[in-house]
Design a protein that fits this description.
It comes from Camelina sativa. This is Major pollen allergen Ole e 10-like. InterPro entries: X8, X8_dom_prot. By secondary structure, the chain is mostly helical. The chain contains three helices and two strands, in the order H-E-H-H-E. The chain has a two-stranded antiparallel ribbon. Helix 2 packs parallel to helix 3. The protein is globular, with a radius of gyration of 19 Å. The N and C termini lie far apart (about 45 Å).
Length: about 120
């Protein structure tokens, strides 16, 4: 079956849009805590990131990311801040194998994860 010129052009145009859209979606990543990280590991990650110059104010009481007041939420926020400020390389998200990369923005409400 032979496609007409307008259909071929439309197909190429739509393919180009999809390829570019997929690239944009997959090019931004955030570092978050794994579901298997223990509370002790999460607390260690918070302590480490905060000691390395990460702004941990947002996870403090009254901060934009304090609620929900859980270790996994707080750790994910500071782990991502560390990852973003250290070149967005996998090593900066390792946290002794308790960090993982996400392609969906974990921001919520007024808590905005940097990217």
């Amino acid at each position: 079956m032979k496609m007409s010129s307008p259909l071929t052009i439309l197909f190429i145009f739509l393919s180009f849009i999809m390829i570019n859209h997929l690239y944009v979606v997959s090019s931004t990543q955030w570092c978050i805590a794994t579901l298997t990280a223990t509370n002790a590991q999460l607390q260690d990650n918070i302590n480490f990131a905060c000691s390395q110059g990460v702004d941990c104010g947002p996870i403090q009481p009254g901060g934009s990311c304090f609620i929900p007041d859980t270790l996994v939420s707080h750790a994910s926020f500071v782990m991502n801040a560390y990852y973003q400020s250290h070149g967005r390389i996998m090593k900066a998200c390792s946290f002794k194998n308790t960090g993982t990369l996400a392609v969906t923005d974990p921001s919520y409400g007024s808590c905005v994860y940097g990217s």
